[in-house]
Amino acid sequence: MYILVGFGMYGFIKGEPKKLFAPLDASNNFCGVGDYKDFPRMTINLKKATVNEIFGNSECVKECPAEKDAPYVCKDGKDCGLAEHEMTNVANFCLPKKLSTSLAGGDDNAAIEMLRDVLHADVVE
To answer: Is 1 a domain residue?
Structure first.
């Protein structure tokens, strides 16, 4: 037991515990850590991805765009595209505001409808 506590303390002191909770983008960068410390949020362009590739086009961004068609601000001035929905920050992930409100309110039907709209696919109910 003491050995496990020792390893845990060593890892906490010598490691980077922020990485445990930081989103990891498609290029294996930890959002909000190291060179990406000013880009703590992660966006996923759901319309360009299939369910299997959902994180394959993710990017670390400064802020989640609050308005539709607002640009994402990415590291090195890279063009990350425009927001296709009003977005909001949920645990450092930029999610469509309508979806996050539906999920927070427990409205499963509204969340499923939003996913259908975003993914352009049939979602199993």
So the answer is: no
